[in-house]
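Input sequence (223 aa), recorded before submission:
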Amino acid sequence: MGKGATTPKHSQLACLMLVLSTFSMVGSGCGIEQKPTKPSTIDGKIIVDIVAPREVHNRFLVLPHKGTITRFTGSTKPEPRETRSSTGAIQSCHSNPTSVSPDQRLVAGCQGEAVAMLSGSNPDEFILREKGEKTIVYQRVLGPQISGFLWSPDSQAVAVLTCTVHVSWDPRYWLEAFRGHTKQYETYDLHVLDVVNLNVSSFTVPFEASLSTGRIVSWGMSP
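Predicted structure, token format:
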């Protein structure tokens, strides 16, 4: 076999290193560009905050019309107007939280079990209704647990933040898992629903944390 040839053992090692490198980048929290699941014409800047233990804030900026999600480098302190929303963050869909669109036409809400992440529990459902009517415009499971939802200022869309619990993607923790000391981590996805054509654009937040909470901080329109 020539010097430049690759043995099966070396080939397998190279493949393993490539996989580990890929997973490591996914869990690093760096900014990435994602293509929406469907074309989006929704405007504005959505800021999502994943709060890790010890009040460590990890904020991300989502631009639906560009299909991008990146680290947010602005101020880490919420403006007063950002803290008044009752649905930017929710404790549980079991209490059936709702939020009326700014134009007063539609009502966003969710329903679910007290602990959506509990083994055997049904996932949360996001529901969009006409205000004052029982007519359901949209109803779907977007993720295991809904962490919050927020209307766009122009009432053209609503953003829904969902959370999924899993064993960490980071290879640094795989050895602990193999030893039986598994630790649960959370990842988050932001789903932007266009209420006119009911298209959804989904963005995976490139960050994972243990014992974290997530919320949609604000939705500002482009100047």
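Checked by second reader. Residues 84 and 134 are 27 Å apart (CA to CA).
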